[in-house]
Amino acid sequence: MLDLVVNHTSYLHPWFQESRSSRSNPRRDWYIWRDGKGEGRKTPNNWRNNFFGSAWTFDEKSGQYYLHSFLKEQPDLNWRNPQVRVAVAEIMRFWLERGVDGFRLDVPHTYCKDKYFRDNPPFFQREKIEKGPRFSDRLFMSNVMKLLSLPELQVRKYNQHQPETHEVLRLLRTVLDDYPGVTSVGEIIDDDPARIASYYGVNNDELHMNFYFELLHCRWKAGAFRRSIDRWEQILPEGTWPAYALSNHDVVRAASRYGGGLKGKKRVRLLAMLLLTLRGTPFLYYGEEIAMQEAKLPKDMLKDPIGRRWYPLHQGRDGCRTPMQWNGEANAGFSLVEPWLPVGLNISRRNVADQEKDPQSHLSFIKQLIHLRKSLPVLQVGDYKSVDLGSPENVYCFRRQTTQGKLLICLNFSSRWQEIRLPQSNKQYRLVLSTGLNGRTSGPFFKPFLYPDEGIIVEETQEHIDGADKK
User: Fold this and answer.
1) Structural domains in the chain?
2) What is the pLDDT of residues 288-311, one digit of tens each?
3) Could you give the count of Cα atoms lying within 13 Å of 376 in the half-sphere of its Cβ?
4) Catalytic one among 137, 187, 250, 460?
5) Cα separation of 68 and 63, whole Å?
6) Does residue 106 carry a catalytic annotation?
7) DSSP state for residue 441 in the 8-state scheme
8) Predicted TM-score (pTM) above 0.85
9) Annotated active-site residue in 18, 59, 73, 106
10) What is the pLDDT of residues 151-193, one digit of tens each?
């Protein structure tokens, strides 16, 4: 899959260079230009970009403001212009003809803007109006930054989530439907799961999948993860397919986010089992295969504009974007020359080459999970249902089921042993896989408990087991 970033282009892109060359240029309306208020030097409205500051920048050459939802170097395309829609469809066809499997659409909820360019209401009126997206997702700014940026606080009612965006996505879907077997996934940023789900389309005719980012912000509680996933499963329209991720290029890596060190190492094994046994398509962020940690970079090495502006209160996103750690050599084997960002932490232990040799490594465990997912149809297409088999705030259990088989996945989010109450029936249980390094092996499962921070996959079988070793 390719990353399709078409809410905006670079300000150096030929399209924008033509657009800003004069007000009469044929590509002028490919971007969003507006006269300023008053004598022309006040911004057209109060819209803020997703990082900090106004969403409008004045262009001295042509005497108008252009819109940018992100950096001023990233001017927004005008998706109300039919020529822009045709041009993007042609780009998609170019790559689809070359055999790509689909696209990740970057922030498609920002494609269309209010045609009247009305001011966004202040954030503090959020409860008085229809639920809308907040001024910025937690992916971009910490609470500290919010407090320091009170003018930024607004409900993005008119520059995101416009009805016309669904029309655009239906058009792009028709392009994808001409190529059997391809897919799409959207990066929809919003606090309202129902709004995210709307981008599947009323008739499942928009995006094939949409990321559900709430898992990136769950507290380390079994109940938090269970409630979040159950809510998403209940909201999803019938016949749609979920997409889950636990890290991405905008948040602290999971191995550091949940404790770091040995604690983080155990917890990311648990999260890996969760991610790779849920219904839908799992997305692994590069480095998660080896439990890469967040890198801590000094200010003079930061590239991310968020970190450069707010350091040390917020160190930006560079820490999760350091080079992939292929081996323990110079630049972690990523490059023969100095990379854009320095390599991260613990490359002598957390690298692909060394973990490939260790059957107990995180990489080996990930491979086991992927093998199971590929070999067991129940993990590919089975239904999902959470079940209460233990302490609900400490243990998260769910069942994957088809007419041909059933699996129970039980995850202990606590640092203590936890008992689980397996359903009483004439069925037997077989341990398929454990996250722990406690000596448990696959086979008959008679002791219904979980070690601290352990996750297990248990198969329900019809066969009766006699004389089995019950140790």
Assistant:
1) 82-364 (3.20.20.80), 382-461 (2.60.40.1180)
2) 999 999 999 999 999 999 899 889
3) 24
4) 187
5) 16
6) yes
7) -
8) yes
9) 106
10) 468 899 999 999 999 999 999 999 999 999 999 999 999 989 9
